[in-house]
Design goal:
α3 packs across α4, α4 crosses α5 and α5 runs parallel beside α6. Helices cover 35% and strands 26% of the residues. The two termini are 32 Å apart. The chain is of the alpha/beta class and 266 residues long. A six-stranded mixed sheet has the order 6-7-8-3-9-10, sandwiched between helices. The chain has nine helices and ten strands. It is globular. The chain binds adenosine-5'-diphosphate. Adenosine-5'-diphosphate binds next to β2 and α1. Keywords: ATP-binding, Cell membrane, Membrane, Nucleotide-binding, Transport.
Length: 266
C-alpha cells in the first residue's frame, strides 16, 4: 500500500470554567472538571497508489479531524502513518517530521485558504519559492502550467476577491498540484460553494482522478463518491464503520448503519 494509517486516536479536551467558589474550596482536580470528547477511536485505513477515497459520514463523526491529524494540522493522541514506506508517529512529531511528511502531501481546505494580497499565480508559486527555494522563473512556469490544468491560465494575475468561490478553490487545487504531492487531502472542498459552482471544482477533481492522482476526500457529494471515487469509507462516532470499493459500497452495503445513512441522504 502507498499509505497506511493505523490506530489514529484523538480526544479534544476543553477545561471547564472554574466555578464561583473555585478559590474557596481548594480541592485540586475536583473543581476544574475537564470536558473530554473522544473524536477518533482508532481509525485504520489503507490507500493504494491511484486510489480516490471518499470519506462519508454524519456531521461530527470525526472526518475532518482525521484528515487534519494525517497532515499534522492536529496532533493525534496515538496513530501511525506510513507513506511510501516512510513511517510517522502522528502523536509525536517534530518539525523535521512535519516538513518531511508535507513534502509528499498537499491539503485543500474547505475555505480555500488563499493569501488575499497575492495573485492567483503568486498563491500557487509561494510555496515553491519560499519552502522549496525554487528560482522565481521556474516557479512561475510550474505555476502557469498548474493554473492551465485547472482552467485558470487567463486569471493568473487576478486576486482572490476578483475570483468566484469555485475559481478560488481551483487556484487552491493548482497550488496543491504545484508541490507535486504523492497524495492530496481534500477537506469538504465544495461545501462552502454555491451549488452552481461545485460542478467546476468536482470536474477538476474528476480529471485528477482519471490522471491517477491519489486523493483522500472528505465530502458530502454522493455523486462524487459513487461515480468518481474508487473506494468509499463510512465513518461514524470516530470509527470506520464500513469501507469498500465504491461500486460495492453503494450497491450492496454490508452494515445496517451504512444502509440507514444511505437511505437518509438518498
Ligand atoms: P466531521 O468532519 O465528521 O463533521 P469533525 O472532525 O469536524 O467531524 O468534528 C468531530 C467532533 O469534534 C465534533 O463534535 C466537533 O465539534 C469536535 N471538534 C472538532 N475540532 C475541535 C476542536 N478544535 N476543539 C474541540 N472540539 C472539536
Amino acid at each position: 500500500a502507498m499509505l497506511e494509517i493505523r490506530n489514529v486516536q484523538k480526544t479534544f479536551r476543553t477545561d471547564a470554567k472554574p466555578g464561583l467558589h473555585a478559590g474557596i474550596f481548594h480541592r485540586p482536580g475536583a473543581r476544574k472538571a475537564a470536558q473530554e470528547l473522544q473524536v477518533l477511536r482508532g481509525v485504520d485505513l489503507t490507500v493504494e497508489k491511484g486510489d480516490v477515497v471518499a470519506i462519508l459520514g454524519p456531521s461530527g463523526s470525526g472526518k475532518t479531524t482525521l484528515l487534519r491529524c494525517l497532515n499534522f494540522l492536529e496532533t493525534a493522541d496515538a496513530g501511525q502513518l506510513i507513506l511510501d514506506g516512510e513511517s510517522f508517529d502522528l502523536a509525536h512529531a517534530n518539525r523535521a517530521d512535519i516538513a518531511r511528511l508535507r513534502k509528499k502531501t498537499a491539503f485543500v481546505f474547505q475555505n480555500y485558504n488563499l493569501f488575499r494580497n497575492k495573485t492567483a499565480l503568486q498563491n500557487v508559486t509561494e510555496g515553491l519559492i519560499v519552502a522549496r527555494r525554487m528560482p522565481r522563473e521556474q516557479a512561475d512556469a510550474v505555476g502557469m502550467k498548474m493554473l492551465a490544468k485547472v482552467g485558470l491560465a487567463d486569471r493568473a494575475d487576478s486576486y482572490p476577491r476578483q475570483l468566484s468561490g469555485g475559481q478560488q478553490q481551483r487556484v487552491a487545487i493548482a497550488r496543491a498540484l504545484a508541490s507535486d504531492p504523492e497524495i492530496i487531502y481534500f477537506d469538504e472542498p465544495t461545501s462552502a460553494l454555491d451549488p452552481e459552482l461545485t460542478g467546476e471544482v468536482l470536474s477538476v477533481m474528476r480529471q485528477l482522478a482519471e490522471e491517477g492522482m491519489t486523493m483522500l476526500v472528505v465530502t458530502h457529494e454522493m455523486g462524487f463518491a459513487r461515480n468518481v471515487s474508487s473506494k468509499t469509507v463510512f465513518m461514524e462516532n470516530g470509527v470506520v464503520v464500513e469501507q469498500a470499493p465504491s461500486r460495492q459500497f453503494f450497491a450492496d452495503p454490508k452494515e445496517e448503519r451504512t444502509r440507514e445513512f444511505l437511505r437518509k441522504i438518498a
